[in-house]
Structure formats: C-alpha cells, structure tokens
Amino acid sequence: MVEAVEPQGPERPPGRRFFWPGGLSARLLILTILFVALAGLFILPPALAAFEEKWLLDRVRAAELASLATEVAPDRVVTAQLSSQLLTGAGVETVAIQAEGMRRLVLQGPRRDQTPYLVDLRDQAPTSWLTAPFQTLLGGPGRAVRVIAQPRFRSADFIEVVAPDAQLRAELSRYLWQLVLVTIFVAGLAGGLVYLSLNLFLVRPMQRITRAMERFRADPDDPSAHLAPSGRRDEIGRAELELDRMQADLRAALSSRARLAALGEAVAKINHDLRNMLTSARMASERLSEVRDPIVAQALPRLERAIDRAVKLASHVLAYGKTQEALPVPAPIPLAQALVSAAEEAGLGEGDLPVVLHHDIGAEVEIEADPEQFHRIAANLMRNAREAIQHEAPRRGGEVTVTLGRDDRQIVLRFTDTGPGIPERVQARIFQPFSGSSRSDGTGLGLAISRELAQAHGGDLVLAETGPSGSSFELHLPQR
Fold first, then answer.
1. Distances in Å between the alpha carbon of 373 and those of 207, 327, 332, 404, 450?
2. Among residues 161, 195, 175, which one has the least CA distance to residue 87?
3. Strand pairing partners for 118?
4. Do the strands 410-417 and 460-467 form a parallel or antiparallel pair, or are they unpaired?
5. DSSP string of 165-229, one letter each residue
6. By C-alpha distance, which of 396, 330, 405, 421 is closest to 360?
7. Contact, 118 vs 148, CB < 8 A?
8. DSSP assignment of 117-140
9. Residues whose CB is less than 8 angstroms from the CB of residue 154 and which lie 6 or more positions away in sequence, other chains included
10. Neighbours of 16 (CB within 10 A)
11. What is 386-453 written as a DSSP string?
C-alpha cells in the first residue's frame, strides 16, 4: 500500500528563525516603520527629561510663591494649619531659602525617615539630565525628591524644596505612554506614506522592468516583452533605456545566430556535392598538367593551390556559426611571398585598370604564423579593398600598400588601400558577421573570419583609420 504524500512548500534554510518577507514592497514598509520608531526612541529621553524638569520647576515656583506668605505674617511665622495649606497647595513638603550664606527653613511639613534624592536644576550635566526621568520611573514608591533651583520672586542664593515623587512618577508614566503611542502612530503614518511614494516611483517601475525581463527570457520574440522607455531622467529611466538597448542587441544576436544556423544547414547539404565537384576539378587539373602549353603551365600551379585550399576548407568547415577552427600551427613564412600569393587569390593586378599591391618588405623577412590561416586573413583584407575600390571608381584602379612594424612583443602588418573609406554607420559593426558589409551584395563574413583567425594566434585585427582617402587595417600577431 502506497500512501499519498502531500506536496510541501520550499524548506526554510537552516538557521533562519525570523520572518523576513521576500517582496521589496513589504521589506520597504517594515524597514521604514522600524527606522521611524527607532528615531522616536532617540526622542524619548530628552522629551521625558524636559517634562520632568518643567514639572519640578513648576513645584519650585509654586513653593516660592507660597513662601511669600511668611513675609507678611507677624514675626514671619505662620500657623501650622496655614503652613500645611500652603505646602499642600504648592505640592511640596518642605521649603527652604538660602540668602547671604544663611539657610532658613520657611515652610516645613512632616519629616521623612528616607533621605530624598537630589536634583539641582541650576547646573545639570547632560547625562544626569537624560537619565533622571528613568531614575524616577524605576525608583520605587514612597520616595521624595529634593529640588534646588534659582529663585525668581525672591532675592536669595537658591530655593530648596522637598516633594513626593509619586505624582511625578505617575505623570511621567502617562506622558511616556503618550509618546509611545504618538511614535507608533507617526511611524505607521510615515511608513505608509514613504511606502506609497517609493512604491509608486521605485517599486512599480522595478516590477515593470522585472516582468519585461521575465517575459523576454521566456520568449524573446514576444512583442509584450519589449519595454518601452518611460522617458524618466533618473536611474530607473536609465535602467529602462539600457534594458531596451540590451533587448534589441540580443534580438539582433539571436537573429544572426538563426541565420548562421540556417547557413550551416545549407552548407551541410551542399558540402558533399561540393567536395565531389572539387575532386573532379582536381582530376581535371591533373590532366591539364600533361598538356605542354606554356600558358597552361604558368596558370596551373595557381589553380592547384586554389583547389587544394577549397578542398581543405570544405573538409573542415561546415558553417561559420558551427565552425570549430583548427588551432593555428605557427611556422616560418616568407612574408613577401605570402603577400604576393594572397594578392593573386584576391584578384589584385587583374584587368585593364587593376588594383595593385605595393610593399617594401625584403624577400628574407619571415614571420611565424599558420600559413593557411595567414593566407586567408591577407586575402580577405586585399579582396575587400579591391572590391571597395572597383565598386566606387571602376575606371581608375587603386593600390593596396602593406607595411611591417615591430615592437618587443608583436609584429604589426598595416594594410592601407586607396578606397572610398568605410561609412560611419557601418564602422561600429564592421567585424560582426552579416552586419559589417557596406555593400548590398556583401555578406560581412570576411572581416569576422579574419579577426577570429587573428585572435586565435593571440593577436587581433583592428580598423586603424578610415576616411575619404582610404582605410587602414592593422593585423597584430605575437612575435615569437
């Protein structure tokens, strides 16, 4: 018998013993209330101290006024009944005054067995002033307070009163609860207002961005996943704008990848037939080698090299997007000879108004690179230059100049043409496949492949400069 087990929610991580909401809105509300309540706790001590000081000072002033009755009494002595009435009205038990160094008991009530604690209102330290209310609240019942203050209605050094602190403790306690309730109300009100404000201006836009990201992750082609920027000029607006740009870039990358996949499938289908055609071409070239014609003998090596490269490329490359380029195998290459061979492959020097190659590199100069991959890089650069020149000005020809530079770690080959330059709108994506061509009949793969091969060598291919007078590409290769 198999018992059904009810699904359980996600387990709480070990050691997590308090509730903490997962939503940003709830966390914001809780933190705002806590911070406002904490600020209220800092206000409590000075508010209670000020309340106690005022209460004691009121008792001192009332006792001082009551003591003036003794000035009009015969011999400055009042009856016990009048003294009790005056003390009760002032809310104190004893009144004394010190003048000219002489302390005189003006009104006296019943004596206490317990010594009252002292509060000197003339000069209180901040620490004792702040802690005095808590000493009153926590001191226990039946205590009395001895208060010394500067007189207002008499000419004396100070006035001293003794008062029971039961009423003070009760009023302090009531005032404390009032402050606590007010603090809780203000904290809740402030927390709610801050929550509503931030929820409107921060949390909701962030939720909108988050939902757009989730929809885009689920289906990049979903139109609702597009986040239209709101036009805000703050950080939220910048985040929306950057997300919109990122989505556009990712869509372009996914579209390019889809095109690469389609191209890969197409190349995979024709690869078998292409290799058969190349095999037939190789057999035909072998038969041509038996012909004793000087023109055929001169053109045959170039034809054989082209067929060999095509066979090797068809054998190892199925599609650019799925190509796993072989790791370069560096070997010494006679640079001048390699450039001439690449120029022949690129079609330089052909036609009535040709694009010609110029260089001042000696025949003894060698570099270390993979011969086949270096040939592809140089041929791509020269072919692009020839096509750009002939497309812009087919009746005047042009030049491709190659110069060699070195430093301690790299060699730099600079390919400079006399073409029309690269349009500014294309420069940012010139090395992106299917995007970098400025001509309608170009695929934009040549520079992308060349840069990938250069980086596989540990170097790079960069656009050094471009303009109406021509363009310059720099091929950086490590110097071994």
1. 50, 10, 13, 18, 8
2. 161
3. 146
4. unpaired
5. SHHHHHHHHHHHHHHHHHHHHHHHHHHHHHHHHHIIIIIHHHHHHHHHHHHHHH-TT-GGG----
6. 405
7. yes
8. EEEESSS--HHHHHHHHHHHHHS-
9. 64, 67, 68, 97, 99
10. 9
11. HHHHHHH-TTT-EEEEEEEEE-SSEEEEEEEE-S----HHHHTTTTSTTTS-SSTT--S-HHHHHHHH
Report whether 371 contacts 415 (CB < 8 A). no
Higher pLDDT, 280 or 107: 107
Q: What is the DSSP letter of 253?
A: H
Q: Which residue has the higher pLDDT, 220 or 376?
A: 376
147-195 pLDDT, tens digit per residue, is 888 888 878 888 888 888 888 888 989 998 998 888 888 878 877 787 7
The dihedrals phi and psi of 361, each to the nearest 5 degrees, come to -90, 125
How far is 288 from 311, CA to CA, in rounded Å?
A: 18
Question: CA 194, CA 32: separation in Å to the nearest integer?
Answer: 7
- β-strand pairing of 94-99 with 102-108: antiparallel
- Tell me the C-alpha distance between 324 and 326, whole Å: 6
pLDDT bucket at 275, cuts 50 / 70 / 90: low
Which one is predicted more confidently, 201 or 371? 371
SS3 content of the chain, % helix, strand, coil (to 5): 55, 15, 30
C-alpha span between 34 and 307 (Å, rounded)? 79
* Residue 397 φ/ψ, nearest 5 degrees: 70, -165
Pairing of strands 470-478, 366-369: unpaired
Whole-number Å distance between alpha carbons of 413 and 367:
11
* H-helix or E-strand spanning residue 461: strand 460-467
Residue 275 φ/ψ, nearest 5 degrees: -65, -35
The answer to whether 418 and 399 have CB atoms below 8 angstroms apart is yes
Q: For the packed helices 235-288 and 294-316, what is the interaxial angle rounded to 10 degrees? A: 140
